[in-house]
Amino acid sequence: MTEVAAAAPAAIVGRSLWGDAWARLKANRAAMVSLCYLILMAIVCIAGPWFVPHNYTTIYSDYVRTPPSFSAYPKAEMVQGALDDVLKRMRVDLKDWKLEDSRAVVTVTATRPIDERYLRYIDRSDTFDDAKVEAKSNDGLEMTFSAAVRQQYFFFGTDNVGRDLLSRTLMAGRISLSIGLLAGVVAVVIGVLYGSTAGFIGGKVDEVMMRIVDVLYSLPFIFFVIMLVVFFGRNFVLMFLAVGAVLWLDMARIVRGQALSIRRQEYVQAAEALGVGARGILSRHVIPNLLGPVVIYMTLLVPQVIILESFLSFLGLGVQEPMTSWGVLISTGAKNIGTANWLLLFPAFFLVSTLFALNFVGDGLRDALDPKDR
Amino acid sequence: MLLYVFRRLLTAIPTLFVIVTLAFFLIRVAPGGPFNQERGLSPEIKANLEAQFGLNDPLWVQYLHYLKNLAHGDFGPSYNLPDFTVGELFAKGLPISVQLGASALVLALLLGSLLGTVAALNQNKAGDYSVIALATAGSTIPTFVIAPIIQLVFGLTWRLLPIGGWGDGAFVNKIGPVLTLALPQIAIVARLMRGSMIESLHSHHIRTARALGLSDWSVVVKHALRGAVLPIVSFTGPAAAALLTGSIIVETIFAIPGVGRYFVDAALNRDYTLVMGTVVVIAIFTIVFNLIVDIMYAVVDPRVRYD
């Protein structure tokens, strides 16, 4: 050992804890692919809603429960239906119609003279646009007009009331991911502060603080969550806090245990003997060693939070319409599997794939940061 | 041993007392009351109803009253389902939830142990990796996704199973719910079993058994399994308590009239007695199953003794 070191003293470049962990993480294919997937998912969910042609709250009453398709709507046979609807509203009878390029040329008759202003019904429909009178008979009982057929794309189909599922899924992703992240951060902050306080002060204070955690642990988890919902109402922002406030218990235990064991380590004693102050020990030794477990736990916490949020939304206790989350969408989908299975399949795929990716990244980080593995 | 069981049951009473007290005051502190939600309830009727159920008494009087009734095994009437007492509701729903939960638990223990053992015997081979993949999937995909997917695939596409409903306990009606309940548990059991089995297979007595020329079957089943099964035993306690007291997701999606929905519905409607009843039932199940697990330890591992 000493010979090698003496022979090539300059060749040994120390790697920091984080540099080492990063190198290990990079070697883990599943974790890296998952990490890229997560980043992609986050970008798509954050930026996507601005690029999707539909707003997530816009209701297209002509397109209720439209199946997903890569080609444009309306399909040829749907134009007829939409036309019938709108002509009924205009109180005129259809005589003849045909498609020319992307415009429908329609001839209608009525028993009373037709008012041209009725054409606004055409513009109001989701299928047609830009209606123009082409010709009108002298007595006004017959009119020919043309209207552009609006091309719509619903890649994921539409939901029960005719909202675009793609934009809703992406919007839901924004909500679910940000709840996961925010509630995760809340849980970690509370847990780290509580656990490290207990661990550092030790003695009686530690005893009391940890008994409180034990008591909270023994209450049924769902009881706790429901009570929080009961107290805070179905408020969106408070949900973050409630979910985060429930999940800090594990974090507090982990951090306390780590803090206790790090404080007794020989290198900390050595630093104390060398006269390093409490702050120095904290910032140089304790915090860097705590960060590993905290980061690992945080990545495993985020999927838990997302599941919990989806679970609450599924029960109708979480995010409220028209705002949406993956849990809300899956809940709607589960109720409509008989008629519109895409309502379940697309959000479920987004949720499950994200959960998988988060788990793989968490496992990868654990392997990368766990000192016992070295 | 009997003395130990008796002592444990005695210590359960203060635990139960603390839980009941905590839950009682927590739900009472929540804003609203059982008769606030119904619209068009005139103030006089509401006052009468509250007087009938003793809701106008001071809280501590109600608390003592509840404790007294509870000690006599009376859970009180349900406020939102006025024709039923809480006891009747549980008598109706609990057998259904217990049936589903117990089937799921047995399935999970058997299949999970089997898969975990297979994985451990084929460590780092294809069999191992497929079990790990299954376990990852089972523990990652949430129940509220598994359940509708099962409905969609087996109920609607292949038409093998009914989509939902209890059907007076017909076998086909139970398959979907039991499968949904069991899948995440199978994943956990398989993972636990794999880990402890690998450890057990590396221990000295297994090496000795192999050296003595015992067959693979006898080594694994008679010797390794016994050492590996302890983590599964400790998992079974809380899992059984959770499974047997009903799952709200599974019972909602498959339209099963079990007790899983009681708690959430009751808490939202401030049906105080039903909330308390659910808390007590869950607590009793938890206490009893933890006791059974501790006894099982002694059965499985002779080194564990209770004097």
TrEMBL record, chain A:
It comes from the Bacteria. Residues 173-362 form the ABC transmembrane type-1 domain. It is found in: Cell inner membrane; Cell membrane. It is a multi-pass membrane protein. Its main location: membrane. Keywords: Cell inner membrane, Cell membrane, Membrane, Peptide transport, Protein transport, Transmembrane, Transmembrane helix, Transport. InterPro entries: BP-dependent_transpt_permease, MetI-like, MetI-like_sf, OppC_N. Belongs to the binding-protein-dependent transport system permease family. OppBC subfamily. PANTHER family: OLIGOPEPTIDE TRANSPORT SYSTEM PERMEASE PROTEIN APPC, OLIGOPEPTIDE TRANSPORT SYSTEM PERMEASE PROTEIN OPPC. This is Oligopeptide transport system permease protein OppC. It comes from Ollibium composti.
Automatic annotation (TrEMBL), chain B:
It is found in: Cell membrane. The keyword Glycoprotein does not apply. InterPro entries: BPD_transp_1_N, MetI-like, MetI-like_sf. Signal peptide: none annotated. Pfam families: BPD_transp_1, BPD_transp_1_N. It is a multi-pass membrane protein. CDD domains: TM_PBP2. Keywords: Cell membrane, Membrane, Transmembrane, Transmembrane helix, Transport. Residues 94-297 form the ABC transmembrane type-1 domain. The chain crosses the membrane at residues 9-30, 96-119, 131-154, 174-193, 228-254, 274-300. Belongs to the binding-protein-dependent transport system permease family. This is ABC transporter permease subunit.
